[in-house]
Amino acid sequence: MIPILMADDETLIRSALATMLSLEDDLDVVADVGTGEELLALWKQRVDAGAPVAVAVLDLQMPGIDGVETAVKILELSPGAGILLVTSHGRPGYLKRALASGVRGFLPKTASSTTLATVIRTVHGGGRYVDPELAAEAISTGDSALTAREADVLEFALDGASVDEIAARAHLSPGTTRNYLSAAMSKLGVGNRYEAAVKARELGWI
Fold first, then answer.
1. Residues 75, 162: one domain?
2. At 43, which CATH number?
3. How confident is the model at residue 125 (pLDDT cuts 50, 70, 90)?
4. Burial classification of residue 10, based on how many CB atoms lie within 10 Å of its CB (0-12 exposed, 13-18 middle, 19 or more buried)
5. Can you give the residue range of the structural domain that contains 155?
């Protein structure tokens, strides 16, 4: 059996995925939680107990530490562990950052449960799988100058949202959000957050 630990702040999606994966004869969802911090605590407990190394299935964007940050910390505890990121935001910059960190699987949340199960087996066996469409976008896009959080807040700025609205969507404080927006505007050489968001979108950074 392949043990699986899942983290996704969207409870309905997480529960549905856990249920579907549990129907597979060779997959065992041993835990599903809402944050990266919770998953890391469980992962450490398994490491301390000498349990078999699990596959981590992580939502890319979660409150607190995101999927890539969680992956980095997992790999510090268990080098070479199989990690799969699932996301509804398939930005090329995120994909490149994930692969550079050692993540071996990257799927959109639109993928079927059959594909998800297959990719879990692949990364557990030491292989790699990246959604072909996301891979093509990443190859055609230059490296982003934005950090992951800067890209987050800019994406939420595309519809003209206020700083407070962006902060709420990104699970950040207004002050931190302003700092990220200011840094992004400076890197993109524009005068306001909406212009920064539009330019970043044109560059394929969000």
1. no
2. 3.40.50.2300
3. very high
4. middle
5. 148-203
